[in-house]
Design brief:
It is built from 19 helices and twelve strands. The protein starts with 16 loop residues before the first helix and ends with a strand. By secondary structure, it is of the alpha+beta class. The chain binds protoporphyrin IX containing FE (HEM).
């Protein structure tokens, strides 16, 4: 057996905590560059082991919950989603809740979501005029809040969407930080605001459910899926469980899609030749006079490859974490029970052996022949159930945009950087793009 190498630069009792929290993506890249496939670091007393290689990632994703446990690692989500939902629920219930999320996101429901997203996107670009400049990160964050809420909660809720909803949701997000990964209880004032925000959100969502039930209405959205779903024993979800499912969906899908759209836009502006080829691909689809909702459901290979390369270099989820409940063996190493185990799409996607010249954006690079090398959506039994929805959304956005406009960067290309003020990777601010209507 080998002892696990420790990352340099630990300071005092906090260990590597400060450097990790400042920017997990940069810290984990340094940790891997210094130590290779397996290394450990200290998050204020919590041993965390980083594993980087397709084989190691496969071992983590395939490990059963009894060995590597997601719920124990993500306890900070429990007060956000609610005590009876996802990682706050007993494992068997959580499995059934995840199945309900997956049912609502099945391929056969995509036609309906495509129409909703297309409607939002078309309305959104309507007011852009001939040319202008905008902060694309802000713009996509607002747009994907609308598309997510619309698909999730239906048209009436979406149309009465107030700033209050966005503000409450933002309060919840503030409580999910790299520091919370270490100690969810140590948030102080932030946790009081989080709890108040969740309580008010629960009121809004419950009122909407009650209204729908009182009127006997049935809709084609995620809320209806939750309202109609039953557990294996026939019990329907309680109102608070439905609230938790709604918040879970928003958390899983909003910024991940919004940030991917932002980086896709920046990379398109950085690569005008590729943008022109994708625009031609989209024009060819529009030549058949099809609606956007139908187009976004189609194969658009160049655009899809471009989005995948964006996800390689800028995967929104940088750290995927589990807690070792027992000693966990990988190769010549044993990770002691009680440690956190981390896989990082950000670091994994920069392995030279799998992605030659990894920092180079190359949408034509071949797919690696190991499915555990490219992991923006995770892998194994916890793999993202919203990936088809996410790709549909990003495709719809760029079909609508590239059909009308061309984009260029406002600032120097290298000034658009990955930052991590929360646990989700996003472009630095301001994230300005200039657009002009195509001739
Ligand atoms: C580009 C967009 C997205 C990315 C990069 C992404 C990435 C991921 C990753 C890496 C995981 C696995 C987490 C882990 O192993 O710890 C995950 C899980 C999940 N994602 Fe996504 N996701 C995206 C969009 C979405 C959307 C739009 C939805 C819903 C509409 C969604 C719903 C979920 C759910 C429900 C899970 C399961 C979480 C669990 O196991 O508890 N995701 N996602």
């Amino acid at each position: 057996m080998h002892s696990i190498p420790t990352v340099s630069g630990a300071t005092g009792e906090a260990g590597h905590f400060e450097e990790f929290c400042a920017n997990p993506a940069l810290f984990l890249s340094r940790a891997h560059a210094e130590n290779g496939e397996v290394c450990q670091f200290d998050l204020n007393g919590l041993r965390t082991v980083l594993l980087v290689s397709p084989e190691a990632q496969e071992a983590v994703f395939r490990a059963p919950d009894e060995q590597l446990n997601a719920a124990a690692a993500y306890q900070m989500m429990v007060p956000v989603f609610g005590p009876g939902v996802q990682y706050g629920a007993p494992p068997e219930l959580e499995r059934q809740q995840l199945k309900i999320q997956a049912t609502g996101l099945r391929q056969d429901r995509m036609q309906r979501y495509a129409a909703v997203i297309a409607g939002e996107v078309e309305a959104w670009v309507e007011g852009w005029g001939e040319a202008g400049e905008l902060d694309i990160y802000e713009a996509f964050t607002r747009l994907t809040l609308k598309t997510s809420t619309h698909c999730l909660m239906g048209t009436r809720f979406r149309n009465t969407l107030t700033d209050e909803f966005a503000d409450l949701y933002q309060e919840l997000e503030h409580s999910v930080s790299p520091a919370a990964l270490r100690d969810p209880a140590a948030l102080g004032e932030v946790s009081a605001r989080r709890d108040a925000a969740r309580a008010r959100l629960a009121e809004l969502i419950t009122a909407h459910i009650d209204e729908r039930r009182a009127k006997g209405e049935v809709h084609e959205d995620m809320l209806q899926v939750y309202m109609d779903a039953t557990y294996d024993d026939g019990r329907p979800l309680s109102a608070d469980e439905i609230v938790g499912m709604v918040i879970w969906f928003m958390f899983a899908g909003h910024h991940t899609s919004g940030n991917t759209s932002s980086w896709t836009a920046v990379e398109l502006a950085r690569h005008p030749d590729e943008a022109a080829a994708i625009t031609a691909e989209i024009d060819a689809l529009y030549a058949h006079n099809e609606e956007l909702s139908r187009q976004a459901l189609k194969e658009i290979p160049r655009l899809q490859d471009f989005i995948m390369e964006t996800l390689r270099l800028h995967p929104p989820l940088v750290t995927l974490t589990r807690r070792a409940l027992v000693d966990f063996a990988y190769g010549d190493y044993v990770i002691p029970a009680g440690s956190n185990v981390m896989v990082s799409p950000y670091v994994a996607h920069r392995l030279e052996q799998w992605f030659p010249q990894p920092e180079r954006f190359d949408a034509a690079r071949p797919e690696p022949d190991n499915v555990f090398a490219f992991i923006p959506f995770g892998g194994g039994h916890r793999k993202c159930v919203g990936n088809a929805f996410a790709i549909l959304q990003v495709k719809a956005i760029f079909c609508a945009l590239l059909r009308r406009y061309r984009f260029e960067l406002v600032d120097a290309p290298e000034s658009y950087r990955d930052i991590m003020p929360s646990l989700i990777l996003r472009p630095s601010e301001p994230c300005l793009l200039r657009y002009a209507r195509r001739g």
